[in-house]
Structures are given as structure tokens and as C-alpha cells.
Amino acid sequence: MNTVAATPQAARALAEHFRAVRARSLALAAPLSAEDAMVQSMPDASPTKWHLAHTSWFFERFVVGSQPGHAPFNADWHYLFNSYYQSIGPAHARPQRGLLSRPSLEEVRDYRQRVDDQVIELLQRDALDSQACHQLLLGLHHEQQHQELLLTDIKHALWCNPLQPAYRDDLKRSTGAALPMRWLPAEECIVEIGAPAWPAHPAFAYDNESPVHRVLVPAHVVANRPVSNAEYRAFILDGGYRQAAHWMSEGWTLVQNEGWQHPLYWDDSLEREFTLGGWRAIDPDAPVCHLSYFEADAYARWAGARLPTEFEWEAVAQSLPVQGNFADDDHLHPRAFTGESANPAQPLQLFGDVWEWTSSAYGAYPGFQPFAGNLGEYNGKFMCGQWILRGGSCATPAGHVRASYRNFFAPSARWQFAGLRLARGLA
Amino acid sequence: MNTVAATPQAARALAEHFRAVRARSLALAAPLSAEDAMVQSMPDASPTKWHLAHTSWFFERFVVGSQPGHAPFNADWHYLFNSYYQSIGPAHARPQRGLLSRPSLEEVRDYRQRVDDQVIELLQRDALDSQACHQLLLGLHHEQQHQELLLTDIKHALWCNPLQPAYRDDLKRSTGAALPMRWLPAEECIVEIGAPAWPAHPAFAYDNESPVHRVLVPAHVVANRPVSNAEYRAFILDGGYRQAAHWMSEGWTLVQNEGWQHPLYWDDSLEREFTLGGWRAIDPDAPVCHLSYFEADAYARWAGARLPTEFEWEAVAQSLPVQGNFADDDHLHPRAFTGESANPAQPLQLFGDVWEWTSSAYGAYPGFQPFAGNLGEYNGKFMCGQWILRGGSCATPAGHVRASYRNFFAPSARWQFAGLRLARGLA
Amino acid sequence: MNTVAATPQAARALAEHFRAVRARSLALAAPLSAEDAMVQSMPDASPTKWHLAHTSWFFERFVVGSQPGHAPFNADWHYLFNSYYQSIGPAHARPQRGLLSRPSLEEVRDYRQRVDDQVIELLQRDALDSQACHQLLLGLHHEQQHQELLLTDIKHALWCNPLQPAYRDDLKRSTGAALPMRWLPAEECIVEIGAPAWPAHPAFAYDNESPVHRVLVPAHVVANRPVSNAEYRAFILDGGYRQAAHWMSEGWTLVQNEGWQHPLYWDDSLEREFTLGGWRAIDPDAPVCHLSYFEADAYARWAGARLPTEFEWEAVAQSLPVQGNFADDDHLHPRAFTGESANPAQPLQLFGDVWEWTSSAYGAYPGFQPFAGNLGEYNGKFMCGQWILRGGSCATPAGHVRASYRNFFAPSARWQFAGLRLARGLA
Amino acid sequence: MNTVAATPQAARALAEHFRAVRARSLALAAPLSAEDAMVQSMPDASPTKWHLAHTSWFFERFVVGSQPGHAPFNADWHYLFNSYYQSIGPAHARPQRGLLSRPSLEEVRDYRQRVDDQVIELLQRDALDSQACHQLLLGLHHEQQHQELLLTDIKHALWCNPLQPAYRDDLKRSTGAALPMRWLPAEECIVEIGAPAWPAHPAFAYDNESPVHRVLVPAHVVANRPVSNAEYRAFILDGGYRQAAHWMSEGWTLVQNEGWQHPLYWDDSLEREFTLGGWRAIDPDAPVCHLSYFEADAYARWAGARLPTEFEWEAVAQSLPVQGNFADDDHLHPRAFTGESANPAQPLQLFGDVWEWTSSAYGAYPGFQPFAGNLGEYNGKFMCGQWILRGGSCATPAGHVRASYRNFFAPSARWQFAGLRLARGLA
């Protein structure tokens, strides 16, 4: 049974979803010139143009390419726009992506259009089998991940330019007030963590979220909201970046070698920060972001608390609607809570605003099975040396995350919209 | 209440223990010249002389130094022989330890003697308060850790010398036969993991083993013995080091950049290995060792299995006596099982022979509290980027490890006596 | 006395020269997209856009900027487009030039136009004093140097792109036949080397060509033409890149670490090479190029000869017209000699085709005085660790070089159009 | 004709010379423990033990080893103690020399003795042919070079140890007064530079000193003595290390990246310096030393002068006796001039005290021929990227240098006893 596009109605819905996601990527790139779209400011980041091409390559390779008689649009591009799928073949070196003046942005846009046309055509004549439909759906989630990376990467690129231009001048802005911090208690319990394995189960989830399994979560308290800019500034002013005792050993080495003194995009006055809308006054009530794991962890230790485990986080998130300040809100920056009548027993801003660093190293769930075939490389091979973040951010497309969603980055990474929420044990 | 040396009898026992541990370090250094004792073959390793001095500094700083009127034996040496205690003061750069021709090995031996004399004298006149006694006991466990490092570091140093001399020519050797590999089943259960916090509780444990907490361990099977050299050789001959699909992404990068083709001390024939007794034929039945986490993990994936979690490991180890091939056996190399009538329901060689890589990243237990004061830096600040190993090795002093003992190294580290045991989920 | 534009006629001529040089830079950039113009493929190279901007900045800073009432076109750009003039102020880090998506190529073109308008206007109303005129003239020579770098840098950039596109498809091509190699003798003599110091003397020369001084040149022979591709291929086929004995110690290290096996842009078949016109068959009769000093020196040793000193080179070049295959010929690649009736007593192709590595390290002539003021940094501070090349190349603008012209690059540099001519002592 | 040991008398003299040089090396190592003799504090330096072994290997390989029936003392040691003779075979990696705890210092001393016995025995029975005698003589000069390196390397090693012990406490010390600086004029002239090629010519010289050739030396003045500590301190106090304008571009980068603020072994007070006799007050009248070329060159520019060329230096040195403060004087540190009645027309301290950086890059003389055979690698392959120093130092064995002697080091090297003498052109 095709769980994805089994009916004409389902196929139409899938096509609609496809068009919307694909259009969204182009919309995100629209404020950028061909030159902007080519910048790679560090090996961890990729040019906008590369994101646009790679996500198209994903559909060409895993959906269109499996159709009988398909001729590649351009054989050389397989090498250029493969990211890290070793089982498919060699790939262009990641740190060299910024050298690709050819193909041009215009050619890449044309490539996108041709891929889109073929996919739509295949959907319209119901030519995709179940596996192809699954890979199509996976490709849409994949593209949404790259939409967020496109934003974080271009933010870094524009900040690296001495002129430090804004990505957009017309972003929405809003003010609010951080609620007082409160601890929400949780009893020891056994929690069903994770999502059933897709595509055997119809609801989409990445392989690393499966299988569902039971975890004993100890008694603890968790904060009702993320740590705010004002709270983090107090840590800085208290010498947080000058006292080794707060830091993991590796984090302290980075503080010294890299000269870290505040979150990535703050200036030395601690009053202003670089945003996708340019330089702005820091809102003391908004969640702090652009922290590495080491900074989040050090803050928590200074505050007499700790980061929650990913299981503690998921346990509380399971019962909440996936709502918040996502990229579709067009703020593209975390903001203070603006709700009227928050339920005091419920945590705020679990979803959206900032990814929340957890204390959990990224690893396999018991019984983990990577996706079948080449796509087995999607998540599994990075399960070493990365740290789990949860909940999505102001740069995450709405509808992309869920309670079981596991994001992961190196603990030194600072260019994502990453903040933290405090927790404490109850021993 | 002084839980360590509360009675004259206890004080005498502590003094005896102290003498024995201290003498053992000198015995390990005895086969080495002053020149051998100075080699630092890589930044991760330290010279024998530095181990001898640093362990003495630990007692001077944390036991003798807290006594009224104590004058440091040599003020400059605090800087030389502090390892990483930032709260105490700056330390000589780790990669420069091999440049310390002064103080001489003879001076360091003399330093050890003076520290020993003072400690014994303090014990004899019952001058150590409870805290000092605890730090004394911690210092002995600390010294045992360095005894193992002394062996692994000198093994690497002698191997780096083109002459590749043996550390000792008179090591014991024995042969055995690996039992057939069998899976031992375990039902899902909640396990009490860890050790009560010392010194509040009288039995010694490191801070990272505490507190005791409940963990849900899923249903699984675990192998009755470690993976053997013969089994690992089959992995190599099957192209294990040439297929990216077996490897974590970071491990595959190391395989290619470092040219890994077999365990660290094997030669290219896969027939011979360098040991503390010099070059020897590889015993196919003995546990494989000198693997990185990446190699252990790749082998397990190739074998259709996985590494056990540290909780799975501890759950099975809790009921077993801490017996095995430890350093005191004077083999200083893993050996095949030689027992007569092994209980088929029990796993073999959990303790001794080789440290077993687990699938668990090193992290804090819920409610973890570092040791008080400066010694809080002992374990806690390394809880990022390291991987857990369990069970001790042929280079670990007998009596040093226990079921709850958590060793940790970077996943790329190969110079420890580290191997693996397979596990599998039962979903 | 204004030696440059003392009369209206001279001013008109200078304006004409200015227009021509400035237009030539734009013409060189014309085949490139804004994306192409942004690539920086290695720290030694700069993006086309940066060359266009920096050369304009030079005129703004040193000519227009000294006029009363001049407001900078854009104050931030001083930082972006200063290259290495420390006495003027800090500069954007060289390896980051490829990140400058802003200002756009269009803005840089507009900047050029505004600088040009002002310079022309100043010339037309005779507002430039003698010093400003000199700096204007220096700026034109400076821009010509960057025209050559623009070509060598974009060649490298396009070659680094896996698609390896041609810079132009319409370059001129011609064939010829290398004349038999012959030795031209020179007696010991004292030679007047160098050029009188400009601007005290009216003929332009860089400061590093002055003062004129007497050098004793020993008896020697020099080859009638540069080494050809066929000759260099024989060196390769004879194992030239596999025998340490031919190489300087530092060069041999590079051969091994970088895996050098042939000139930079050759393929492994030794039959094809990448040119500004794309991949082509190697012409065996054309001068070999894209060699480092180490390769040129190794070839000479293998051939039982040596490189000429820069004085030997200049001594023979002084009597010859500055004619050859320069950039204006629109070949942009070295070519075999095509002349009909070469005078057998005269060396061929001293000028144009390929820069010729000499055996002379770059240093100051006796009595060397750097240009006055900030421009003293132009040449003098690089007189360490560089090697002298003479004669210009197929990428050098006609009219830019002369017999006394001293080019210099690191001995490891390969991306310039650099070859060699053999010499031998007569002892 | 055997120009070295053609008569029994000559053979006896050669044996005596051999014994003396070999004994001197042991005497230099005598103040050092086996541990001290093993330290390698940077890749450019070698352990004392390695110097003792390598110089013996040189005699074994080039003198004893060519005798019929010679069996190597220890075949493995060829690999360990070859320095850089690629034509002979692979060598142990230079930066790893400090790891060689085996062979022990005692074994190396024994090796020296066995080599010495064989050489003396061969000399006594007149068994060495002319070539062997030449290589023996070359080996003695080679050993003298290593005697100086032994001193500069151990000075660096002891300084790197935080305890900073003295090499010897019993060095001679003397005071003097720097004469006023005066310029000594020299007319333009053609000078015969260099030494006739040995061994064709009987007087020993390295291959890089030959052949004798004519050089036109321009009119200039040269200082009567080296620059003093007091003069160099004035440069520092005038901000010499803070103004880019004084420096070569590469030197300025080093000043900033390495934090250079004064000569290598000075402390920040500019009052004390580390010497082979330990920390001492800086003698303002003594020649400044432990400068890189970049520092010597920057000082000269600041002083309105320049460094002499190696030809200017040799021209004035040719007429002077080779006398001065050499290692045999047992000061092992530069000292102020103490002579009574210096001839005011003659330069002082050309020989001994400090090597004098010249403005000449190290290159081949016209007609240069490397030594025959494997020893051709002795000097020739380093003729790129090095700078010439002249005159010997307080660490050079008396009798080792001469007017034509060319020493060379990288321009960044600071651990040699290197200073400078000023010169100026007379245009």
C-alpha cells in the first residue's frame, strides 16, 4: 500500500505540498544577489546556491532518477551537488563549495524548474511507486532542513562581510515581556520516547527518532521558559567567560583560543546584536541564542542548574501543540513571549524561537535501523561527537518539527539559533 | 566520622596500602632507564618520570600540603607537575612534558621518598583529619590510574622508537582457546546503576559513578566473551577498513587520513603485534585490543550487532566477582580464556584483559555532584566528547576497577588496551 | 618641473593612456559573470572584482584623495580594498577576499566610473600637481600588474571548478616550431644594471630597478630560447620528479607533500593542458610554463646547466627590442617561435611568452631607496624569500615590461606563466 | 697525490687532529646528564646525544665504511643517525630525534669509541686512501659545526625548561668597553671572492665557498664593530618592534604572530638575558646576539644603514687574522672588546663573538660544483630560502672559520649566536 499518495486526492495534496516547499526555498533566496548566493563563510556553512542545487539534486537522484529512461540533467552536477552520500559516489569537497561560480544561480534556478516539472508530471500521471513517493516526502523534509541552514548560513556570511548588511529590511518585529522563571515539576516515570519507524508507519519521522522505546525519566523540574538575554548578560557580567570552573575542559579551551566573550552575534557592549534584519538593540526579554553547547552548559552550571536530557524535554513536549515563533512568522529572530494568559503549569516556547541544547549526546535509540539503501547515510553515521537540540527555532519552517524531532550539532557550533532551558534533578 | 582511618588498625592498613601502591609505581618504572622515562611520544601520553612525579605532587598538594607549617619541597615543581587543575594554578603545557630533563629521574625518586616519608609519618602520628585521609585514599586510586597510563604510554614510546625494544623480556605468557561465541539474553528491567557517593558512603568510588539511579535497560542479548583477534582479522580480510558503510563519518575520515588498516600495534601481515614483551605472533584466540571506538563500532556493525550500552554492561557485571587478567598477573597483554569449566550462563572476561568500548557517550548521571573543592576538576569537566569503556584491562591494577567504574577516552584513542564485546537488541 | 604632464599635450596623452588602461581591465573582466568575478581559489589569488576595485582604490587614495575637499566615495571601502599598505591603515584579510559579495560587481564598476570621471576631470583642468601625476602614472603601471594577476588568478579559479570552463573560447592560436637549442656566449664584463630612479629621471621604472649600478657578469653561455614542452616532458619521463638529487631540499619536500608530477595545469597523460581557452593538446614546441622555481631549477640541473642570474639576463636583454607574445596579442598562452629569419646570434622570446625564473634571490640593489611616503611599501618590504623572474609573459600587457623590470614570486609559486631559459658558466 | 696524509708525519698530525676534535665533542657533552642529552626542544634543534652519534656515523659511513670487510657497528643505526643524505637512504624523521631513548647515551659513547679506535687504527697502518683521508678531514669540519649546534641547541633546551638551569656555572667572564662606532670606507673594486675548490686545492674549504670568482664590490662604508646591546636596546625603546615600517613584510608577520619584543633570550625588563652560564645582567657594551635576520635588518633600517653584503664582508676580512672570541676561550657568550690599542683603520670582532647577518641570500657561486658523490648533498641543496652569516661566534671552535666561510640559516632563526654589523653605500 502506498501510504503517501495512494489516492488521486493524496497525490494532488502531495503535489501541492511539493510546490509550496519548493517555492519557499526560492522565496528565501529572493533577497540575495547571485554574488550573495555564492558566499561560503566557513566550511560548516554552504552557499545559498548550493542549498538550492543540492535539494534539487536530492529529488533528481532519489525520485526522478529512478524512473525508467531518465537521463541526468547534467552528469557533472551529481559530483557537485552530492553532499555526503559515499555509497552514491564521490562528492565535491565541502570547504570548496564557495568556489562554484559555475553553474550560475540562473542555471541552478533553471535546474530547479526542470526537476520540479518532472516531479509534478510524474505525480500527475501517477507514475511514482510507493518507494519513490516516500523519497519524495523525505526530500521535502530534507529541503525544509536546508531552508533553515540557508538562513543561518547567509546570516553568518553577511556578518563576515565588513559591511555587515541586513538580509532583509522588512522583517516583522514585536515586543513582549519574559514571564518570571518558574520550575515545573515532573515525577519519575517511564516515558515512551520516539516515533514509530516511517515509512512502515504512515506518519513521517526521521530514522533517528525510531523506534519508540521506553525510558525511565527521573524526578526533576524544568523551567517554564528559555533563558533570556537579560539573564545571560548577568552571567557575562558576573565573569562567566573568565572562570574556568563553569566550563567543560574543551569549552574552556575554546573560550581562550577563540576569545569568546559573549554570544556569537553580540557586540562587545552587550547591547547590540546582529540579526537577519541587521544590527539591533538586544531585547532583554527575548530568549538568548547563538550559543554553543559549551556556553549553554556553562550558564546552567553557573545558575546552579543543568540542561534537561532529551528525554525530559520530549516527555513534557509530547502533550503540547507544536506552535511557536517559526520561520513562517517572518520574524526570523527569537522574541519574548507575547501571549496573554499562559497556563502557568505549562512550559512556554518549547517549540520555535530557539533550538534548546540538551545534555544528551547524539546516539542511536535501542533497535535503531537507518533508512534503507543509500539514504541510510542520512543520519546514522553522525552519531558520534554531536549533541542533541530540540524544539525548532525562529528559522525552522512551521510544520517541520515535532516532539520527537532530534536535531544535532557539534558542541562548538554557534551559528544556529540555539539557546537553552534550565532543569534540575529532584534527588 | 572518619570513614577511612578511624582506628589505629585502619590507619595501619591505610599506611600499608599506601606503601604498596607507591612501591608498585617504582616497580613498573624499574625496567626503564632515565632516558626511557623521559620520552613523550605524543601529546596524549606522558613520560614515565612525569607520572612518578605528578602522582607524588598529588599527595604533596592534597594531603601533606594542607598540614600546618608545610613548606613545599620545591615551589617550582607545583607548576611542573600539576596536570590540569586550573583552580590550583597554571600548569606546564602538556605537550612539553618530554622536555623536562630536569628534575632528573633520580631527583624525582628522591621527591617520591620524601613525600612518602611525610605521609607515613603523618599517618603514624594520626595527624590526618578525615578530609586528608579521603584525599589520601583518592590519591591512591589516582596513582593506580597513572600506573596503567605509565604502561600504555611507555608501550607507545618504545614502539615509536625505530629499534622497537621490549619493555620487559620476562613477562608471563599463557595460551588458551576462545570459547564459541554465544548470546546471553537479558529481559527488560529497571537497574540500579552506579555507586553511592563517596566519601559520604564508605566504599570508594569516583564522583562520576554517582549517584545511584534507576535506569530502564531494554531487552537485549550480550556476547559471552570479547571479540577475538581471529574474528577481527576476518573483518579486515573482508575489507572492513575499505568500506565507508561500516563507519561513523568521523571514523571514516580517520581511516583515510591516518591510513588505518588494522589495530594500532599489528603489522601489515596481520600476523604479528607489538606488545610490552616485544614483537609476537598474534594469538587468534585472545581478545583483540588497541582499537579506537570507531573500529570497535565498525566491527560491530559489520557483524550485524552493536556495542552494549554502559548500563547493559553494568547490569550484567553487578553480579560477578571482579576477577580477571589484571596487571598484577604480570602478563600485561590480553590472553585467551584458560578456565576449565565456565558457567555457560555467565559472560567471561568482563573484567581485565581489555577495556570494552560501550555505545555510551560519557556524561553526568542525574544528580551528579563533582568532588568538593579543587578535586571537582578530577572527572566532571571531561564530560563532553569522550566515550565510556568498562571493565579494566591487563594493564589495570587488580583491585582498581569495579562494576560501576567508568573509564573514558576520546573515540579516536587507540593506545589503550581497548577492545569490545558485542550486543544486540531484542525488539 | 612636472615630468609627466607638464604640457597640455602631455596631459592629454596621459588622459588617453589612463582611459586605455582602465578600459583594458574592464575588457579583461567582460567574459566573466558577477559570480566568476568573486571566486578566490587560494589565498595567493584575488577575485577579479577585487582587482577591479583595488586598482580604483589606488587612484582614489593616491591621486583623487589628495585633492582639497575630496570626500571618499565610500569610507568603508578603504578597508576593503587596501591591499597591504600598513602605513595607511588596516586592511581586510587577504584570504577573505572571496567572501565579499558586497559591494557587488555592478557597484564596483560604478565605483570605477566615478574614479575615472574624477581623474579625467582633474587632468582636464590641469589640477594635478607633479606628485599627483607621478602617482597617477604609477597607478597605471600598478593596474597593468593587476591585469596580469587577474588573468592568472581567474585561470586558477576556473581550473579549481570541477567543470573547468574556459575563460574565453575565441582566443587566437598559432603554431610554430621551436628552433634547435643553441648556446650564445658572453664574455666577462662589467654591466650597468638597472634603471635610473624615477621620478627624478623621467622614464618610468619601479623603485626596485634602481639605482643603476655596475655588476661584474662572468663569462657564460645562455640558451637562444626558453625550454620547450617537449624538452620538459623528457625530464618528466626520465624520472625527474622521482629523484631527489635534482632538487633543492625544500623543493623535494614540496614534490612529495603536494604530489607534484608535472607542471601545474598538465594532466597525467602529459598530453593535455588547461589554458585560458580550456583544455588543449600540449604544443611540444611551445615554451613550458606554470613551473615553480624549484621545477625550473631541477630541470636545469638535470640538463647539466643552470638558470641565468638576473644580471646575465638583463645584460643580454638590454640591446633587444621589447617585443614578443604579450597579452595584447590575444593568445594568452605561450607559443612556439613563428618568426621567419631569426638572427642566430640573438636570443629569442626573451620578452613575452613566459616569465623566466632566474637564479637570483630578490634583494635590494646597492643604494636602493623605496618610493617616498606610503608607496615605499610597494616593493621593498618583500625583498626576502622571493625569487626574480624576468621578461614578461603572454599575460603581461604590452608596454609594461622592460629589460630592467624585476618581477618576483615565492619559489613555490606555480600559477604564473613562468618557465625558464638555460645558462652555463664558462670556467 | 694524497694532499692530506701523504707522509707518516702528516698521518700522525691528522690522527692528532682527529683525537682532539673528537675529544672536544665529549667535553662539550660532559656537563650534561643522559636526560639533558636527549632533549629536542624544537624541530630545528637536535639532542646532544644525536649530535654525538651523527658525527660518529659520518665517520663510519664515509671513512670506515668504505674499507674492505667493514661490518656496520649496528645496521639499524644508519637509519637513526643519517641526517639528510637521501642518496644514502631513508632517515629517521628530524622532529622525532628527541624520542630516541635508545640507544642510550652510554651506548652512543661506546659507539664513538669504537669508531675512533677503527679510524686511528686505519690511520696508523696507513690504510686510508686519498679519498678516505679527505672524507676524514671533512668529517672533522663537520663535527666542529655540530659542536656549535650542540651548544646552541642545548641552550635552547635548557631555556625551554621552566627551571632554566645553566649549562655550566664556571664559564669565564670578562668586561670591556665598546669602542665608539666609526665608519670604515672602502672604494669600489673588483674582489676575488671565495676559496679554491678543495680537495683539488690543498687548503680545506666547503664546496659552497668555491670557486674563486671576481665580484665588483661598490664603494661603501662598514662599521668598525658589531652593534652593541645598548644600541639595540635603544631601537627597542624607540618602538622598533611596534612599527611596521622598519620590517620586511614576512618579518613583521612574525613579530605579530610570535609576539617578538626583544632578542630571543632577553627578559621583558631588557636588563637580563639567559646565557649558557644562566641568567645574567645584559652587558650594554657586548655585541647584541640571538637576532633573526629580520631583526638585524629592521635595526639597520631604523639606524639609517643596511647590512653589508657577504662580498663586502669578505673583502674586508681577507686581510685580517682569524682571531677573536671563539668557543675555545670558554666564555661561550659574546663580550665587549677588551683590546688595548685597536688599529682605528681596522674593523674589530669580525671573527668570533657573533655571526654577522649579511644582506646576501644564500646561493651558488658561478661555476659552483657540489662535493662528489653522496656528500654533494652537504651544502648545495639548501641554496634557497636561507641567508648568509659570516665570521663565526663565541660558540664556534677556533680554527673552524675563515674569511671565505659561508654559514647560512633561515631568516627567522634566532637561536644561533647571530648579530650584525652596519654598512652603508656611498653613492
UniProtKB/TrEMBL annotation, chains A, B, C, D:
Sequence intervals crossing the membrane: none
Superkingdom in the source lineage: Bacteria
Residue ranges constituting the Sulfatase-modifying factor enzyme-like domain according to the UniProt record: 201-424
Pfam family, one: DinB_2
Entry keyword set: Iron, Oxidoreductase
Domain DinB-like: from-to ranges: 18-148
Pathways involved: Amino-acid biosynthesis; ergothioneine biosynthesis
InterPro entries associated with the record: CTDL_fold, DinB-like, DinB/YfiT-like, EgtB, Sulfatase_Mod_Factor_Kinase, SUMF_dom, SUMF_sf
Listed PANTHER family: HERCYNINE OXYGENASE, SULFATASE MODIFYING FACTOR 1, 2
Protein name: Ergothioneine biosynthesis protein EgtB
Name of the gene this protein is made from: egtB
